[in-house]
């Protein structure tokens, strides 16, 4: 726009010079040099030049000091065609000028010139109002932006992060607030879990101490009596057997604690193998046959080969602990049945049923807790550590299996394992 206006202004100046030159030429032809007396020139400069190039009159300089103008471009054009024009920098006036020249009838030349505005001048002069508006727009934009941004972030600054669900802010922030709310819920759950675990560890430590203390007291007391000769010779065997049983009980407890700790921390052999669960159950029942015979309890295995991927020793421990309990808490002349259900090897199922004393409904949910016993006196009498079913629970978690318990008091229980 500036460049276009610049050339338009230049053309307008030339046209104006032409019009003024026609008037001056006519005046000089009629009046000669007297025409210039008391003439108001305004912004124009007038020069009258002889045919030899010397200056007769100049409105802006002393003619005696001016050089010959015969070589000037506009003068050459005027001599040749009667009219000439050009633009150049004037060393005399130290400005850019536009020149137009016309040859008179007597051969002399009248030349008019005016200052040509530079493109920078045009930028400053023509667009000066635009610059002011632009500056005002910037100032106004800064003020509005500051005010608007303050208004936008005010709800964010006033958000109660501790309760994201109550925040009613921007719709775009709803996913973030939902995420924060979810994280807060998780943090609360984690905190509760940490507190629960802390209490659980404290309870576990107390239970371990108590379970170890009882057999230690028995062993210590019986040993002291034997050492001081306070036991009759016929009772020594009985005392020794008690000490042996209590030490075995302690050993079993320590082994179960170590096994449970491994399962808790994940420090177990995680290499899984293709296992026939039917054969594994058969091996468990074979190892428990002598214990079952003592109570005249029959052990039965029903089903067929069923393969799954698992950790052999952990799976063995799961089946063993459930079957061992089924024998311990069974009635005399009772039975234990292990069933293998094979659904095309997709979801193997093991069901262990007994005809024992059963479990009350309020106790079923807690039997997998560590050291929880339905009948504490009977459990100690049976030599249980209270950790067997906890080991079962952790072993099943490793294999992503579930267990359901169905039981009726004085009728028996069913443990259903779904792999």
Summarize it.
With 419 residues, the protein is an alpha+beta fold. The protein contains eleven helices and twelve strands.
Number of strands: 12
Uncertain residue segments: none
Number of helices: 11
> CA-to-CA gap between the ends?
83 Å
Biggest sheet, in brief?
5 strands, antiparallel
Overview of the molecule:
Helix 5 (174-227) runs antiparallel to helix 6 and helix 6 packs parallel to helix 11. The model has no long low-confidence stretch (mean pLDDT 82). The chain contains 11 helices and 12 strands. The chain has helices at 2-31, 73-81, 119-126, 128-157, 174-227, 233-265, 277-294, 312-328, 361-364, 376-382, 388-398, and strands at 45-49, 55-58, 83-90, 95-103, 109-115, 273-276, 298-302, 307-310, 335-341, 349-354, 402-408, 412-418.
Topology:
Layout: H1 2-31, E1 45-49, E2 55-58, H2 73-81, E3 83-90, E4 95-103, E5 109-115, H3 119-126, H4 128-157, H5 174-227, H6 233-265, E6 273-276, H7 277-294, E7 298-302, E8 307-310, H8 312-328, E9 335-341, E10 349-354, H9 361-364, H10 376-382, H11 388-398, E11 402-408, E12 412-418
Parallel strand pairs: 7-9
Antiparallel strand pairs: 1-2, 1-5, 3-4, 4-5, 6-8, 9-10, 10-12, 11-12
Helix pairs in contact: 1-3, 5-6, 6-11, 7-8, 8-11
């Amino acid at each position: 726009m500036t460049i276009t206006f610049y050339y338009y202004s230049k053309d307008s100046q030339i046209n104006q010079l032409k019009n003024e030159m026609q008037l001056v030429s006519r005046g000089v032809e009629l009046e000669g040099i007297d025409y210039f007396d008391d003439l108001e020139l305004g912004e124009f400069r007038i020069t009258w030049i002889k045919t030899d190039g010397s200056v007769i009159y100049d409105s802006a300089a002393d003619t005696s000091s001016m050089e010959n103008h015969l070589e000037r471009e506009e003068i050459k054009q005027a001599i040749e065609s009667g009219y000439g024009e050009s633009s150049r920098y004037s060393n005399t006036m130290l400005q850019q000028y536009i020149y137009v020249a016309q040859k008179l009838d007597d051969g002399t030349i009248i030349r008019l010139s005016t200052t040509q505005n530079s493109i920078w001048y045009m930028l400053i002069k023509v667009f000066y109002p635009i610059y002011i508006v632009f500056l005002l727009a910037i100032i106004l934009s800064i003020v509005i932006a500051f005010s608007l941004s303050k208004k936008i972030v005010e709800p964010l600054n006033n958000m109660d992060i501790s309760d994201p669900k109550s925040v009613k802010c921007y719709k775009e922030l709803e996913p973030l607030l939902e995420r924060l709310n979810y994280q807060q819920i998780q943090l609360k759950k984690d905190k509760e879990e940490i507190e629960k675990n802390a209490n659980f560890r404290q309870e576990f430590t107390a239970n371990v101490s108590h379970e170890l203390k009882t057999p230690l007291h028995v062993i210590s007391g019986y040993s002291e009596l034997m050492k001081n000769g306070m036991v009759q010779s016929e009772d020594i065997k009985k005392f020794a057997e008690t000490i042996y049983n209590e030490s075995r009980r302690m050993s079993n407890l320590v082994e179960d604690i170590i096994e449970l700790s491994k399962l808790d921390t994940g420090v177990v052999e995680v290499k899984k193998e293709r296992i026939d669960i039917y054969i594994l159950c058969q091996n468990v029942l074979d190892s428990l046959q002598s214990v079952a015979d003592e109570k005249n309890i029959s052990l039965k295995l029903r089903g067929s080969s069923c393969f799954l991927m698992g950790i052999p020793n952990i799976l063995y421990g799961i089946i063993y602990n459930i079957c061992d309990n089924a024998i311990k808490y069974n009635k005399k002349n009772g039975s234990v049945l292990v069933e293998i259900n094979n659904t095309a090897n997709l979801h193997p199922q093991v069901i262990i049923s007994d005809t024992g004393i059963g479990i009350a409904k309020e106790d079923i949910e807690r039997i997998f807790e560590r050291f929880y016993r339905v009948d504490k006196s009977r459990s100690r009498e049976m030599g249980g550590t209270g950790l067997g079913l906890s080991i079962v629970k952790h072993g099943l978690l490793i294999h992503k299996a579930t267990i359901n318990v169905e039981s009726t008091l004085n009728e028996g229980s069913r443990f259903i394992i779904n792999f």
